[in-house]
Each structure stands twice: as C-alpha cells, then as structure tokens.
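Protein modeling request. Please complete all fields; requests missing the sequence field cannot be processed.
Requester role: graduate student
Desired output: 3D structure, token encoding
Chains: 1
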Amino acid sequence: MNVRGLVRRILFALSLAALLTGAWGCGSDEYAPDPARYAPGDTAASSPAFQDLSDATVTALGLTFSVEYDRDLDRVNVYARVEDQNGTFIGTLNKYNFVVVLDPRTAPKTVDPEDQDLDTVTSQNRVVALVIDSSGSMTATTETGESRIQVAREAAKLFVSLMNPGDQVAIVDFDDDARVVQQLTDDQSALNEAIEKFTADGATNLGAALTEAVKAVGTRPGKRAVVLLTDGDDTVDSVLGGPDVWLNDPTSTRYQGLNLAKENDLVVFTVGLGSELSDIGLADLQTFAEQTGGQFFQAPTASDLLTAFGQTIPDQVAALPPLETYLLTFPNPIPPVAGKDVDVRVRVGVTYRNANGLLTDKFEAAYTVK
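Delivered output (370 residues):
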C-alpha cells in the first residue's frame, strides 16, 4: 500500500472510532464527526476529503439518498443528493467526504472507503411515480359505461406504454393509506400487472399518497415526477380545510406529503377525474402542482383522462430538467439467507470543511437482500 493510501485509512479509522463509540451509537440522533480527522490545521491538500477553506458561500449541508440492492452484481447503489442551504447541488465532494455504516443501531458495520466508488450521475430518462386513487368513489360509472377505476387502469397502462428505453416507473395505490405496489422498473409487463390489481374501496389519503410517491422515486437521477390521479377530496387528514389552513399546519398529512416532495425536488402533476371534487379538493390538487413546478389537469371525462395520461403529461415530464446526484456503490457485505429477505439499514454521513467550519449532515434508509 502506498503512503497516501495508508494515511487515508488511518484518517478514516480515526473517524470510525468516534462514529462507533459515540456519535452514531444505538438510538442516537446526533452526529458529530471526530475532530481528529478534521483538525483546525487541516488543509485541502492534507485531507483526503474535499475541502475548500476559502469557500464561505456554503453555510449548511442537506443530505438525502435512496439505496438499492443490485442482486445480479451483489452491489449496493446509493443515490445521494447533497445540497447547500439554498437547495443547490454540491457536486465537488469525493468518497472520503462520506461515511457509510450498515445496521448502525444493532451491529454497526462500516464500509471502507477504499471499497467504494463515487461518481456524479445524471440522466435524460423519465423517473415517475404513477399514483392512482383506489378509494370507494372510484367505482362510479363514467360516460363510457366503465367505472372510474377501470378508466384509471387504462390511462395508467397507456402512460406506461409510452415509456422510452431506460425510463423508470413506480406504481402507488392509495385509499385510506398508500402503498408502493411496484418499485421503479422499466419492465412494462410488471407495471401492467400491478396496475391490473387496483380495486376500489376506502377513503382518500392524499398526504400518504404523496409521501409514498416520494419514497418510490427516491433520489434517482433523471427527469423526476409524480403523476397523481384522484376523483375526490382528502377525507383522512385530521387538519380540516384547504391550503389556506393546512399549508400553515405541519401536523397536516397533506402538508407533510407536499413538503417531502419539495425537499426531494419532485415535480407533481395532479389530475382530478370526474366532477365531484369540491373547491377545497381542487385547491389541494392545484397547490400540490403549483408549489412543485407541475400542473393540475381537470379531467371531467374518461376521454380527458386518456389525453392527459397519453400525451400532455408524458410530454411535460420529458421536458423537465434532469436531476444530478452522486452514485456511491460498494460490494454488499451482508450475505443472503436462504428463504428469507434480509433488511439492511444504511446510515450515511457527509462532511465538508470550508471557511464556515466543519459542515455535516446524515440520512438513513434501507435495502433488502433477497
């Protein structure tokens, strides 16, 4: 091993000692990286992590990521987005700015940075969560004689059929609650199979629908959007009233879903099917779209819905600017267990030293070894 590599390992080990014995201990919500790794005398030249001691423009870091297990390669892919206090992507970091710990709350296992690869990645492909209302009102009949849920299935399948190679779509089904029924994939057969399983029953939970959509898309790079279809008002949120009320109340599930979409740079397109949405329901859908840079579509008829899903919305998603992220990959160190899914928690910390001192943030997610 060369001297530079040895120094990097020593510095990383010092950081790890603090990580495993204190700051990221079981149940801890605080993260304070080992000052020995970033002592006041450090310079960008002497530290393996990227630093810019003359930079005063960045005053805070914000880290979000989604993690996926590549079974074929037995590797873990972490799509990480690091932003400054203004939401601008910081694309100058290297892998030594990141610390990755698996199962941090039970049996911490740290990933050696020498085993990691880091790249900045972007994509011109569309990455979309299709979010379909399956509440009881979707049994109502449309002008075609079909139920709204049947028409919604047709529209969703039409959207899927227009995917280009490399586009990724996830399917979210919502009523009283919301569920990701198909993770992001370019497999149109799998998507259509998930869509065909929609059944109409229950209430309407728009906040949960948005929240699950954000989880489904994660931080995948590309032209990222949520397409949310509903035929009625939210009937689950304990905060009553329209956007003039819930936008000022963080306990609102609609507030929480919208805020999560905004934090994750997701553009939301909303579609109101039929004519039963109240003024509050219409205002909710318009607010979701307007505050994320999307658009609201009124679809009084099945024909209007098919036009929105088959032309207008796909074209608008294709015109979105792509999102850039980091892609951090490493070999999966958790062996599979025959006949059992193994859930692995991943905690990532990011650090960056500049004229404002040592800036940090952390985030946690999970992947499944099957």
